[in-house]
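Lab meeting minutes (informal)
Scribe: AK
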Amino acid sequence: MQRACAAALLNAGETIINDPGYSNDDKAAIELIRALGARVTGSGDEPLHVIPPASKWGGKPLSVNCGESGLGIRMFAPIMALSGQEITVNGEGSLLSRPMDFFDEVFPQLGIRVGSNKGRLPLKIQGPLQPRTIDIDGSLSSQFLTGLLFAYAGAEARDVSIRVKDLKSKPYIDLTLEVMEHFGWEVGNRDYEEFYFPGSSAAHQGSTGRRAPISYTVEGDWSGAAFLLVAGAIAGRITIVGLDPDSAQADKEILQALRSCGARMLLRPDHIEIGPGSDPLQGFHFDATDCPDLFPPLVALASYCEGTSVIEGVGRLAHKESNRALTLQEEFAKMGVDIRLEGNRMLVRGGEGPDTERVLGGMAVHSHHDHRIAMACAVAGLRAERETMIEEAQAIDKSSPDFYTHLRQLGARVRIWGEINHE
């Protein structure tokens, strides 16, 4: 959804976004492109219609807010730098403490003036960006590369390349390239080590010289669905619709972990059925280096598997909404789950014994204002022997505002403080 908003801002004509998201991150992206001059109409279940600004949002200095979205700031900052206008970029919540040093390091190489608060927000930028062949470090996040790819396309870059060292989360770049291709931008990829721009494409341009509207449909979100799939595997057979098994999204790899632990699963073109297997779920080994957002649902899953599950890629967790490795260890310990951190590996000890019916001791836990921690604790609480109370449970609104509604639809009792007769 956020990539679609970025593409719509840079597109030469109207963009129609079908099945738009409405999480807090999605709303932040919509408000950001509005602040940059795009006209956005449509709400609720209606498609969004986006008309881009007539020029690269020039004029007096501008202030924008990316909410709490890490992808939002890293993707949109290079795009905003296409303008010669001074733009102050701010954010909210955990985003204020997340590192932004890469802007200070890379932007000056592209002719962009940049200032930050010692590598933190607020960020001041002023272009225009000059596409050049550069080298960047991809070990922290692929999100900045996504922004550069969009910005180079928007600047109609030719005969230049972005060379990347140690790129992590390659599937997220696949998703970016897929969206860009849909909008007619051509980007070459040499084994994820170099991305080059042979020239801008004239796709979607009509015979009159005016671009025809581009229609883009937002896929179902595998990141949010991973929690529901785990819920089905540990708590009862469910059916989920709206997911594309052939998606470029990294988090569809949750299916691999579910197969490994012995969940019963049936994949159909239009739905997925999942439930506990005939035998107890078994501990699994999973490398989450390229899909670190799966750590929280994987921990919930491992909590109900016999033996010890090993999840690799812990180094990717430090700069999320919380330090997720430590947060998962702390909050799941309250529920009776032993998590050990050994270098880049997380070891989660689940149930033991051939006839185990391990249930967690429901307790008061805290989301640490992290949407995925809140969802992981809620899923683990589905089979807890006592009620689980999650403080700051509304953190889910960042990415999956319908999550608790979905749990209710599946038969779980969910009470939200302040609501009346919703249980």
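Next up, CB showed the second protein from the same session:
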Amino acid sequence: MGNIFTEIWEMEDLRKRVLFTLGMLGVYRMGIFVPAPGIDRVALGKFLHTQEQGSMFGLYDMFTGGALEQYSVFVLGIMPYISASIMMQLLTVMVPSLERVQKEGQQGRNRIVQYTRYLTLVIAGVQGFLMASGLEHMRVNNDTIVISPGLGFRIMTMLTVMAGSCFIMWLGEQISDRGVGNGSSILITAGIMARVPASVANFYTLVVDFQEINLLQAAILLMLGFAVVAAIVFVERGQRRIPIQYAKRVVGRQAYAGQNTHLPLKVNTSGVVPPIFASSLLTFPATISTLTSNSLLDWLSAAFHPGRWLYNLAFFGLILFFSFFYTAVTFNPVDVAENLKKQGGYIPRIRPGNETAEYLDRLLTRLTVAGATYLSAVCILPNLMQTQFHVPITFGGTGVIILTGVTLDTVAQIEAHLMTKHYDGVVGPKGTRVRNRRGLLTGGRGPAV
């Protein structure tokens, strides 16, 4: 591990990227504590502590790293940008004009990115206005949370959260372009990691004071946690490699032999999007019931409380639905089969064209079922342990999946950068030598190129 850090520090380009990423994360965390106007934060904190379990407030507070409890200018976090990106991916599939724009190369992709930014501001504005309206109806011991409710407070809150979301969107794009890893994912991970020290301290207190669990139970929980993380790493790295062969090509008087490669299909193609969407939908009745008084919403909130059998069944069904839906949006077997056919590629013992598309669709269906089952098991297991075995777990399965997946992707990108340091150049035609990134002559016996 120390050797890796040494190599990162010695490689100037990677060192600058890592330091830039850490600097942007520092700016993001400082912004969490910049308060937005118009709220009694002490009263809001008391309200959230009483309503956090089973409501959307706890989910949002986890993703924003405590920004909701602080009611900062970053109260919405990166979630409006994530929602806008997913919506644009769906729209590019359903709207032919947007699909044509996306296929226009880099210029078209830039236009899609610009549309995503505009949609982010719209989503942030709507969420900010609805949040302000909901805060005006919240009560703590018959006292209002909002200092001066009214239209002015709603507009001020809307403009504040729009500005905060716009700045966070810019931070994420800067990390993606000039830092290491995906900026949006890194910001979500930073918010979740901010809750880790408090969770560890709470677990330590429970063990030392023997309030809830003893040493044996603590050891079992730690072993189970390591097993879950190992399972997540195993599945997230799991692939079904479909062999692809390319026919021999003849260009002029030269014949080129066919190449053998593979098409990798991930077990969890949809990523962490299904559990996020499923959690948001299931916590919606509990969130609305805290703002209004309605017998139907109260019944739904009690029936879909985390850990109940109806909640777990609906959670699994929604994860399965969103897994198939998002996989269908991001991976089209018909397009892949057509591209393989145009490039002269084929799957052994499978005819090109429709038969290849049907074969890919069958494989993708099986992988999606396996991936959805894995996501459901990881997300539902903490809820079962809390309700059935009364185990004090403050870290949900969705957060663990995000932490592990983003860490794996970031480490893979760092390793890709480190490979350039060990690259000694390639041998050019007729033994010529090619300069590597440091300008050193390597390989071959002829003059340097």
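CB comment: The chain has two domains: 1-195, 238-394.
No objections, moving on.
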